[in-house]
Amino acid sequence: MHRNCRANGRSARRADTEDKNVTKRKIGILGAGTWGMALARMLCVSGNDVLVWSALGQEIDNLSTTRVHPNLPGMKIPQELKFTKSMEEVCTDKDILMFAVPSVFVRGTAAKARPYVADGQIIVDVAKGVEPDTLMTMTEILADELGKEGGPKGVRLVALSGPTHAEEVAVDLPTTIVSASPDEEAARYVQEVFNNTCMRVYTNPDIKGVELSGAMKNVIALGVGISTGLGYGDNARAALITRGIAEIARLGVAMGCNVHTFAGLAGIGDLIVTATSMHSRNNRAGILIGKGKSPAEAVKEVGMVVEGMNALPAALELAEKYQVEMPIVQTVDAIVNHGMSAAEAVRALMDRGLKNELPQL
Length: 361
Fold this sequence. Notes:
It contains 17 helices and ten strands. It is α/β, with parallel strands linked by helices.
């Protein structure tokens, strides 16, 4: 299947752009990490006018000159894809503005962008996380920060999330994703822009559930990685994934989300791919911790942001706020932040009181 997608992807999408019914969109992307650049290339090859900004000037220089991303060596950056160091330029006169910076930088980036964002701008967020201090999701942060004095009069927010590894999107392997927003028109617009031969996009109005899934699954993936690093097998992985999505769903329902979201692409789909793939930073970091590395050593060896560790404080606060039992999340926290050995933590998890499965889902 993937060979056909890769073989036909560029030619089919370029042919699509020659169709008089296909509109060339202007898209500004804030962030030049692996996910932002994989999407930037895809959107550019689809015939859109794409401009990428990064806060790191040297990164922009290198990408513009070499046309290769250091963490995506198999991806060639098209000459048509442009780069800028100007926040004003990347934000001005765009059909879509996409935030692709790590979750910890979303608020700061939004503050810098605020003066240049147009009224009614469609904004797509692809970062996954919950802000520890405010317990806001990424689109809530964007609404808050862009809504301050000097900002636009209203923006249309969409979360793009699902089982997606940048390494696969970068080489046109088949992928599915969710365009989530209560603004149905905006969600469908983003669906149409991002959908192509190799990426199928669904819509979902439950933006809170989609974003919560994207943030919490990183914590569960850390736990699955720890289990693997300890030498446990498929049985343990399956149990952690299944019970992990149950924890996320319980929290989501308590927060007013649609329970069906957690059985979809942005829920169990994203958790499976994050918890089982070596492309996943959270899984790799967990494996290293399970093998005896400290959390700090694991992050250093992975060499990129491990979002699951950043999400832990917010996950625990939300569980306490909504009175939801999340034993796997608590166990991962005990290992990462409180020095409990991985083996001891797993034993404690297994020795919990006996339960009836169904009421706990």
